[in-house]
Amino acid sequence: MFIRSIIAAIMFISATATAADLGVNTSVADGHGGFGVSLSEKLGVEGYTKTGGELKFDRFSGRDYSQLSALVSYDVARFFGVTLTPKVGVVRVIPGTHPSSTSWLAEIEASYPVARYTTLTANLSRTFHNSTTNEYNANIITLGAKFFF
Which secondary-structure segment (H or E) carries 10? Predict the structure, then answer.
């Protein structure tokens, strides 16, 4: 049911968005490689907005688990064209062998525009799981690109 809700939310955002960002990434979580996709939206007037939301899906094949995340963000600073954006939200961990669980995610993103519709991103994330899924607590480093449409 949770996966269906995330897919429905992504479809709704992509159908109604005026300036959505579609992202792709590669990541490392405690030595295990992964990949992911994201859909994000900044709220408000183009160029003046700082608040946003993001839906993400990440797959870590080395540990056989996936993560679905819903985050809120706020742009806090811009230095030499690099925007720093902290994010917080919930994450649903879907292990291959254990029951799935929901927990918290904190993230900081640095983004740099390289073309009119393309931005490079680097993220550092930390997941905070409960005691039953403590083995999936991870520091995650992500490198990727976002494409505006």
Answer: helix 2-16
pLDDT value at 43 more than 70: yes
Q: What is the DSSP letter of 77?
A: E
Residue 5 tokens read as: 């809700």
Average pLDDT, the chain: 80
Residue 144, token pair as written in the block: 């990727």
User: CB within 8 A of 124, min separation 6: which ones?
Assistant: 107, 108, 139, 140, 141, 142
* CATH number for the segment(s) 2-148: 2.40.160.20
User: How far apart, in whole angstroms, are the C-alpha atoms of residue 50 and residue 62?
Assistant: 35
Burial of 21 (0-12, 13-18, 19+ CB in 10 A): buried
SS3 2: helix
pTM, whole model, 2 decimals?
A: 0.78
* Residue 148 or residue 145, greater confidence: 145
Record the tokens describing residue 142, joined without a space: 């992500």
Residue pair 69/93 in contact (Cβ under 8 Å)? The answer is: no
**Position 141: which residue type?**
I
Q: What is the DSSP letter of 135?
A: G
